[in-house]
Amino acid sequence: MAAPTVAEPTVTEAARVDASPPAARVMHGRATPYLFLLPYLLIFGVFGLLPIALGVWLSLHQWDFQLPNKPFVGLDNYADLFSADSLVYGDWWESVRATATFTVASVPLLVVLPLGMALLLNRSFPGRTFFRAIYFAPYVLGVAVIGLLWRFLLDANLGFVNHLLGLVGLPSDTPWVTATPWAWVSLVGVTVWWTCGFNAVIYLAGLQDIPAELYEAATMDGASTWDKFRNVTLPGLRPVLLFVVTTTILASANMFGQSYLITQGAPGNETRTVVSYIVERGLAQNDAGRAAAMSITLTLMLVVVSVANFRIFRYQED
Per the similarity annotation, which family is this (predicted)? Predict the structure, then answer.
């Protein structure tokens, strides 16, 4: 049985295909990448750029949801954050100090401990996959679950943590969520337990990208374990370290759920972070103008910190 034949295009059909102007084909080729990017750009514009623009607009007005008039005040909302005579000055800088305290206490732990975990989990031993899953498991829980769970576990009177401490002869009335420094210990400890696994997975992916030949060459040169870590592992992890440090700083500076659910800002407002104060000012006190100004100011602070972080890592690389 003869195989079916495919009709060749005629000269007229081929000429019709090539009849489009060269300029049109070039423009179509240039527009193709942007057509693929268009869905993302639309989503980013609506849910990213538009809220930023609206936030800047709100920060330039005295914006109270309950009042019909929202007068333009220019930069007065920003000036109030730096004027000792304003109503928000004291609370604003108290929340900044609380955020800085939490960030300084949590970031080193969330950078160093996951690295140690990743180094251990990168070795070959029985049950390695199981332990990888166990360490990452808390991160899949939402902040509401984490906050309510540890709020009960750390309760000074009925909490399971104080009960266990009492069983081993330690003080069983520690005010974990109502007094400092224990409130900070609780917030930092819970956050490290909750998010440590995520950074460990990022480190683990970076470790697996380091060529094994580098370690073999270092071993042949007589390098010790510390020498391999300092001269092979750390340089190989520099891009990963930059990512982990930057994202951890940003996440810690935007901490809200743990403080809101576990300590509720106690004692007093000592553990009330910037984001908590922005929410309270904007929603509870209907002062969206100043709340937006606080948000923009916090963003600019974090931009400065991120740029400095990038410059530090670039300097070390050079």
Answer: Belongs to the binding-protein-dependent transport system permease family.
